[in-house]
Amino acid sequence: MQRPSDYQSFNQRLQGCATLIERRLDEWLTAPEKGEAVPGRLNEAMRYAVLGGGKRLRPFLVLESARLCCLPDEAALNVGAALECIHCYSLVHDDLPAMDDDDLRRGRPTVHKAFDEATAILAGDALLTLAFEILADPETHPDPGVRSALSLELARSAGRAGMAGGQMLDFRAPGANLSETEILRLQSMKTGSLICFACEAGAILACAETARRNALVAYGGALGLAFQLADDLLDAEGDAALVGKAVAKDHGAGKATLVSLIGADAARTRLSQLEAQACDALAPFGDAAATLIAAAHFVANRKH
Amino acid sequence: MQRPSDYQSFNQRLQGCATLIERRLDEWLTAPEKGEAVPGRLNEAMRYAVLGGGKRLRPFLVLESARLCCLPDEAALNVGAALECIHCYSLVHDDLPAMDDDDLRRGRPTVHKAFDEATAILAGDALLTLAFEILADPETHPDPGVRSALSLELARSAGRAGMAGGQMLDFRAPGANLSETEILRLQSMKTGSLICFACEAGAILACAETARRNALVAYGGALGLAFQLADDLLDAEGDAALVGKAVAKDHGAGKATLVSLIGADAARTRLSQLEAQACDALAPFGDAAATLIAAAHFVANRKH
Fold first, then answer.
1. Which listed site, A164, A233, B106, B125, has its alpha carbon 20 to 30 Å from A266?
2. SS3 letters for chain B?
C-alpha cells in the first residue's frame, strides 16, 4: 500500500526532474545565432516539439534508475534528454496525416499543424538524429564503452524491433483481429521498449552489477505494459480536456487494445497485477526504491 | 590527367565495393523468420529502400578512405552499410508527397508508392535508427572510443546542422533568391556533409594521424560540392532514361542551384576546379590515392 507521503514526494520529484530535463533540452536546442548552422525554422520546430510540455516520465525513469545505482541527476540528464528527443520525434511522426492524423497534442496544435508537414518530417528526423549525437557526446559519460552501450540499447529499443516496429504493427492492426498475445507484443514494442530502456539506462550509466540491471529491466517491462494499459483505459473512458488530446480515437479507429478485447474491468485487474509485478521486481533495492514504486502507482492510476 | 587504366580499375573497384555493401546490408536486413521481432512489412519496405540499386558511392568512399589508412574492406563494411542506411532513409523521406513528391527513384516506384506513406515514414525512421545500431555494435570496431566517435560524427553530419538541416533549407529555397554563398551552404549541408563523413570515416576507423584525417576531410569537402554541382548539371541537361528519375524537376520547381545562378558553362568550370581541389588534397597519400582521384574524376564527369 502506497503511503500518501511517498506519493507526495514522488510528485515533487517528478516535477523537479521535468524542470531539470526541460533546461537540458533547452540547452541542446538553443536557438541558433544568425549565421550558425541550424536553419532557424527547423530549430524552432524541434523546440516546439520538445519543449514546454509533457510529464517527462521517461527521463524521470532514467534519473531515478541512475539514482538507485548511486548516480547523481547531473550524470543522467543527457541520457534523459536524448530519450525525450526519441519520444518526441515519435509523437511528431505519429501525428502526421499519413499516420494517426492528429491535430492536437498536449492541448496545442501538432507540429505539422503549427508548421507544415515537410517541417514536421524533418524536425522528427533531426530529433531522432540528435538523440544519438547526445549519447555519443563525451560529456554524456567519460567512458566510451558506456556511451556505445547506451547507443546500442537505445537504437534497439527505438528501431525496427522496438518502437518503430510497434508503430508499424499498430498501423496495420485495425481490422486485423489481433489475439491477446499479439496485442501484448505490439504494446511492448511500441510503448514498452522505450520505458524499459529508460529504466535500464541508469544501470548502464552506473555500470551496475547484472542483478541490479536485470531488476530494473524487469521493473521497466511491467511498467511499460501498465503504462499502455492505463493509456487504453483513458482512451476508452477518459475526458478529452484532462487527457489533452482526442480520446476514444483508438476505439473509433478500430485499433486493437486489450480493453476492447477483455473489457475495462478485467483490464483494471490486469493493471493492478502489473503494478504489483513492477514493484516486486525492485525488491533487491529495498527502501531506496520508494520513488520508483510510487511511479508505478502513478502510472497505473493516472487520470491524464 | 586521368589514365584510362586508372579509370577502368576504379570502375571495377566501385562495382566490387557495391557488391560487398549489398551483401552486408542484406545480412543486416535479413527477412525475419515467423515469430521474430521485426514486422514483415516494415522489413520488406526497409529492404526495398536499401537493396538492389545505387552506385553505393558513399560506402565506396568509406572503404577507400579506410584502405588509404591501411585497413582492409572487411573492417569498414559496417560503417559503409550504416552510412548507406542514412542515405537511403533520406531518399525515402525526401520522396514523400509532403516533401519532393517523387514517384520514381532509380527507375522504380518510390517506397510510399510501392507500399504506403505511413510505411515509408516508419521505414525511413527505422533505417535512420539502424544506422546507429550498426555503428554501436561491437563488431563494427573493437574500440568503443572509435564506435562512439563514428556515431558522433555521423549524427552531426546527418542531423540539424548537416543533411536534415540542408533539406530544410532546400525545401524553403524556392522563390527565396538565394545568393551563391547561401546555395553553397545549403549544398554543403544537404549533400556534402555525408560525403565528407564517408571520407573521414576511414581515418576514424584506422585511428589515423590528424594530417591524414584532415586531408581526407578536405578531399571529401571538395568532392561533396562537386557531386552536387554535377547533379544540378544533370538535372538541368540530363536524360531521364539515363538518370533514372524525373529530371528538370529542381529547375521546374524554381529550386536554387548554382547552375541556374551562374549558368552551365561557369558551373562546368567550377566543377573542374573542385575536382582539382579534391585531388590536390590527397597529395600526402601519393600514388596510393589513385582510386580516390579516379573517384573525383567520376563524380565530376558522371552522366547519371
1. A164
2. CCCHHHHHHHHHHHHHHHHHHHHHHHHHCCCCCCCCCCCHHHHHHHHHHHCCCCCCHHHHHHHHHHHHCCCCHHHHHHHHHHHHHHHHHHHHHHCCCCCCCCCEECCEECHHHHCCHHHHHHHHHHHHHHHHHHHHCCCCCCCHHHHHHHHHHHHHHHCCCCHHHHHHHHHHCCCCCCCHHHHHHHHHHHHHHHHHHHHHHHHHHCCCCHHHHHHHHHHHHHHHHHHHHHHHHHHHHCCHHHHCCCCCHHHHCCCCCHHHHHCHHHHHHHHHHHHHHHHHHCHHHHHHHHHHHHHHHHHHHCCC
Residue B114 lies in domain: 4-301
CA of B285 vs chain A CAs: smallest distance (Å): 30
Tell me the per-residue pLDDT of B11-47, one tens digit each, with 9 for 90 and over. 999 999 999 999 999 999 996 655 568 899 999 999 9
Q: At what angle do helices B57-68 and B193-205 cross, to 10 degrees?
A: 30
> Among A1-5, A28-32, A266-270, A274-278, where is mean pLDDT lowest?
A1-5
Give percent of chain B with pLDDT exceeding 70: 88
- Interaxial angle between packed helices A290-301 and A4-28, expressed in degrees from 0 to 180 and rounded to the nearest 10: 90
Task: Pick from A29, A115, A168 the residue to mutate for testing the B interface (most B CBs within 10 Å).
Answer: A168
Does B130 sit within 8 Å of A160, measured CB to CB? yes
Shortest CA gap A7–chain B (Å): 36
In this prediction the ipTM stands at 0.93
Task: Count structural domains, chain B.
Answer: 1
* Cα(A256)–Cα(A173) distance, integer angstroms: 6
CATH number for B203: 1.10.600.10
| pLDDT tens profile A231-259 | 989 988 865 445 455 545 554 555 678 88
B155 touches chain A (CB under 8 A): yes
At B58-78, the pLDDT tens digits run: 999 999 999 999 999 999 999
